[in-house]
Amino acid sequence: MSALQTTALVLCFVIPSIGWILLFRQVFRFTRLFRTGRPDPTRTGEPAKRTMTLVREFLGHTRMARLPWVSIAHWFTALSFLILFATLVNAFFQLIWPDFRLPIIGTFPPFEWLIELFTVGGFLGIILLIVVRQRQHPRSAAGEHGRRSRFFGSTWWQAYYVEFTILAVTICIALLRTLEAAHVERLHPGTNIALHFPLTGWMRGMWGGLSIAGIEEAIYLVAMIKILVSFAWMITIALQPTMGVAWHRFLAFFNIWFKRNADGRTALGALQPMTIDGKPFSMDAVEEMDEDTSMGVAKAEDLTWKQLLDVTTCTECGRCQSQCPAWNTDKPLSPKLLVMTLRDHAHAKAPWMMASEEARAGLPEHTKALAHMPLVGQTGYDMEHPLTAYDALGPEAVIDEDVLWSCTTCGACVEQCPVDIEHVDTIVDLRRNQVLIESAFPAELGGLFKNMESKGNPWGMAQRARLDWAKDLPFPVKQVGKDVEDLSEVDYLFWVGCAGAFEDRAKKTSRAVAELLDTAGVSFAVLGDGETCTGDSARRAGNEVLFQMLAQQNVEQLNEAGATKIVVTCAHCFNTIKNEYPQVGGSYEVLHHTQLLNRLVREKRLVPVSRPAEDARKSTAKNPASSAPVVTYHDPCYLGRHNNVYAPPRELIGSLPGVELREMPRHGETSFCCGAGGARMWMEEKLGTRINMNRTEEALATGADRIAVGCPFCRVMLSDGVTAKEADDASVEQVEVVDVAQMLLAAVRRGDEVEAPVEEAAAAAAAATATGAAGVAADGAPEGIKPDRDDRQTQTSPAQEAAAEEQEEVRVPDENDQEAVHAANVADPWDDDDTATAAPAPAAQTQPDPEPTPAPTTNDVADPWDDDDTATAAPAPAAQTQPDPEPTPAPTTNDVADPWD
Ligand code: SF4
Ligand code: SF4
């Protein structure tokens, strides 16, 4: 036995032994730490489905598919970690017998091909990932200190160390294979080298100068290096429980298996209910609570075991950070930094969390200092250096409160995360504690909570005004309890929502949808003043008690009315009723209006008609219809990412003849938030640049004349953005933010207007029939004159379109003539006058209204929290009324389309 072989045997016995011991110790510690977390009994149901999800996500790398090259490279490195373990075992035996092969499979060609494929694949994969990391390094990225890099704030030495290990191991395996090939060739000259060493055998010539003994010495050396590199890595990660870039190789399997939805859906849509002692909170539980009852997450030990597992699994890849609207507008919130800091804090505090009461007294002072450290507080961080808003060791708090309140709950982080970390639930749990226990929340939310609690809507409007939106419609809108006894008499309950009832622009959507449903012959009824806010904003702001109160009230009302099928126009109402009301006993079939309208268009119950080329009129208070030649569509987060409704609004726009849909660079799953979710609609946006301006600029850059939305919150935010841009660019004046329903209504109305003169002719012809005229169709229309409703698109002549346009010109007041319109408004039941004095004043109403606005009365300037029904005004987020401190340029396709990102 040579000195080298002896040394190799000793080292490769000692180091791996230490490695295994430390690794098992760390796994045991993980288990103990996770067991200190709060219970979460929802994570183990449907084990077969969970296993299938795990297999699919791992083998298919489905959660990384959006970065295809990165996904392929990672697929090879991830699988090589498992498959090449066989070579590690082989290497140990090669220290004794250099020609050793694993029994049975060792010289089985398919096994050898597999090993070679994943050796080369793993090598190329890690090279690719190293290149990507360097290309994306903060030193060459945009933003302050390169914060646009998704790796900004990641732990670099850990990433480099992991990359080095994989690179070194794959090189060692490749070298061993070439040595084995050379060795075999010498010992067994007739061996088919190409068959057994298809990818490495051709390099065996480099050992041509070595004797057999020399080759064997080389095998000892390379096998030893391979083993030592592997176990040095094992020792390193065993001593570094926060090394997520390495630990995710093990923990990701568990994190995916225990994910919220066994079928693989991301943890979006419904928020998890707040739990008290592991049981879902309900209003009944309030009476049993005492002052010691903890709600939400205040400290690390309040996290559930799954949340502890979540944060420990983070790979620091930064995909979440790169998509986060808060981070991209220079706010301190980064979901990656949040998760990393919670992880670092929990593991620093782990000895205290795992120790018994008696043992805690004997812990080191630096550990005991963490015992009562709050997770959220004022850290006095430096805005220029967002990393200072996070400190796992405090001393004031682990993360700054600005980090927490910057979140729009858009879900981009959850949607992006390759290891299924559930950021939004954790963020809301932290908010719950701040609101319900600490009473520490942005001041604006106080008014919101008060309005929702006392008035049942965020605007603080009187319930009796809930049906004002329907005044003067040319058909009656039925109300449950008045016009219909219950909902069995109609097809749908139309859930109007607070915005749809009170917010001027959203009212146009309500009217458009009602008119379209009526046109299509779909019967519906509304709850009117029986409807209350769904509680979406309250829940996402952390006020679970208020949400439960509103939700139970609504569910009782809905169940009493016999609701089964509900159509809504607000993405937030849609998500809450569909996904969250089942948690409080209300399960219904809920459709977003774009889904229902799309269905009606497909069934040809609504027939859009071609738009005259020059027609690009904005909507007005009286005419909620609007259309234009080029349209871009903004995906509302709570419709798209949270509920996967991407196609219906697009199909609907696609069904509008003469309208081109022009997508923004960030659309679909990678859409960018408007800034209103997570109750941010009601908060000032003081930090960084404005999210709505960022999105508006992206929308305007498409050159579209209409920014179509499917949510009243998005509409307010983007309308504000367009209004702000108008000051800089006159051409923006022609742009309007509209709901998809409004465009459809414009197109369907054109059909009616085309039809009207034709029907008059038909009536004349019918009269002629009565006097004996021939050639009249059975339905009273002269044959060959009345267009088939389904064929209008092709039968509409330019002359008819011109006639239709003319008619519309007559019917629709000139919106530029503000005085005339205002005069008309005064006497018109559609006039906002009755509510204008009580006008809600969310962001939008504080800016120049594109529509004529009645002169303000004293009521307009009354205290927004005044309980006077006629004077109530909603919180007016200053962020939406202040100029953008530094508008962020709209992203280019380069910002979003790089598969290497
Ligand atoms: S939910 Fe949206 S805003 Fe909140 S952390 Fe995730 S990406 Fe950022
Ligand atoms: S996407 Fe997931 S794994 Fe990647 S940094 Fe964010 S939380 Fe961590």
Q: Which class best fits the helix and strand makeup?
A: mainly alpha
The kinds of small molecule bound in this structure are: iron/sulfur cluster
If you average the pLDDT, what whole number results? 85
Low-confidence stretches: 757-901
Terminal Cα span: 51 Å
- Number of DSSP strands? 13
Topology record:
Elements: H1 3-36, H2 47-60, H3 68-83, H4 85-94, H5 109-135, H6 156-187, H7 193-196, H8 212-239, H9 244-257, E1 275-276, E2 279-280, H10 283-286, H11 305-313, H12 319-323, H13 325-328, H14 335-354, H15 357-360, H16 365-368, E3 376-377, E4 399-400, H17 401-405, H18 412-416, H19 423-436, H20 443-454, E5 478-479, E6 492-495, H21 497-502, H22 504-520, E7 524-526, H23 536-540, H24 544-561, E8 565-568, H25 571-580, E9 589-592, H26 593-602, E10 630-633, H27 647-654, E11 660-661, H28 691-700, E12 706-709, H29 712-726, E13 736-739, H30 740-770, H31 792-795, H32 798-811, H33 818-827, H34 833-836, H35 893-897
Parallel strand pairs: 3-4, 5-7, 6-7, 6-8, 8-9, 10-11, 10-12, 12-13
Antiparallel strand pairs: 1-2
Helix pairs in contact: 1-8, 1-11, 3-5, 4-8, 5-6, 6-8, 9-11, 11-14, 22-30, 26-27, 28-29, 30-32
